[in-house]
């Protein structure tokens, strides 16, 4: 065998023997075989405590006729003033008679409501005892209290529901007759609607939100039935209206309310479990919102999720935007930026909690809405770091 053939045989033998060599790879076999980490989905995390903060008021719905509201909401007492002007001479002309007297039989005020009204028996009908107009400002927005407005109960006035969307207020005929006697040339019917003391209901009777059904957006109307010369006539007149609100007491402790116009913001916090290992990466975070439909009233609205911070220089509490969404009653969860939770986990930002807010820059939030939440929850998915 020549020298070249011998060297080739030795080389082949060495390579073959190397195939069975158990010596560890000098760069470490763990780099190839070690686990790449796990994906873990945690059970829903409940919120810890919570409260509602008052952000302020957006006065578009107060001192104007765009919205008519009566009841209690978020510590506010909401009252509405209603006026309809009647000309007795026009009523006589419509009846085709020349006499100057009217036999008033019924006086009814009909109001189309936005939501089924609870506690209708707690709706009080008052007589306003001072002058007012649709342009009056009824609230002091600096100290969040309403102006004093004198009124008295109208004896004999009653309210009843006619179906799901209509309230009928029956007034004693003498109420209208006495007004006409005092002002024969411009008799008017004026009412103040308010909740009874201690009542816990709310209704938005009319709103100028184009997205609401037409029957909801109808302004109230007065239906007057009278007789002359043995004939009975019905006169229907539209009314003007205004709304004002009383002192703000705030929601009950622990009650989470998100509201527009009277802007209320829920504040809550989530404690991250110790089971999340150091170095884990948050891959998904969702805010789950459970609301109480029986205590809420809303149409379309948008809301923002905000992170709560404390300014280190001033110690003031600040809020920074995380995500914005349109509230959908058919939707339970809303994705939020997972870097917020990642910051809490890593300790780069303090976990001071989250808040919900309603931006007044969104046209949808120019109508009255409020949602009562129970126990917001956080859903987290994270991945563990590779095994060491």
Can you lay out the helices and strands and say which pair or pack?
Blueprint: H1 3-18, H2 30-33, E1 39-41, E2 45-46, E3 48-57, E4 67-73, E5 76-85, H3 88-95, E6 103-112, E7 123-128, E8 139-140, E9 145-146, E10 151-153, E11 158-161, E12 166-171, H4 173-182, E13 188-195, E14 202-207, E15 221-228, E16 231-238, E17 240-245, E18 256-259, E19 262-269, E20 281-291, E21 302-310, E22 317-326, E23 333-335, H5 338-346, E24 354-357, E25 370-383
Antiparallel strand pairs: 1-25, 2-25, 3-19, 4-5, 4-14, 5-13, 5-17, 6-12, 6-15, 7-10, 7-13, 8-9, 11-12, 15-16, 18-25, 19-24, 20-23, 20-25, 21-22, 21-24
Describe the protein in words.
The chain is mainly β. Helix content is 12%, strand content 42%. It folds into 2 domains: 39-55 and 260-383, Jelly Rolls; 60-245. It has helices at residues 3-18, 30-33, 88-95, 173-182, 338-346; strands at residues 39-41, 45-46, 48-57, 67-73, 76-85, 103-112, 123-128, 139-140, 145-146, 151-153, 158-161, 166-171, 188-195, 202-207, 221-228, 231-238, 240-245, 256-259, 262-269, 281-291, 302-310, 317-326, 333-335, 354-357, 370-383. Strands 4, 5, 7, 10, 13, 14 and 17 form a 7-stranded antiparallel beta sheet that branches. Strands 1, 2, 18, 20, 23 and 25 form a 6-stranded antiparallel beta sheet that branches. The chain has a 5-stranded antiparallel beta sheet with strand order 3-19-24-21-22, with no helix packed on it. A hairpin with a 2-residue loop joins strand 15 (221-228) and strand 16. It starts with a helix and ends in a 5-residue tail after the last strand. Mean pLDDT is 78; it is low at 3-35.
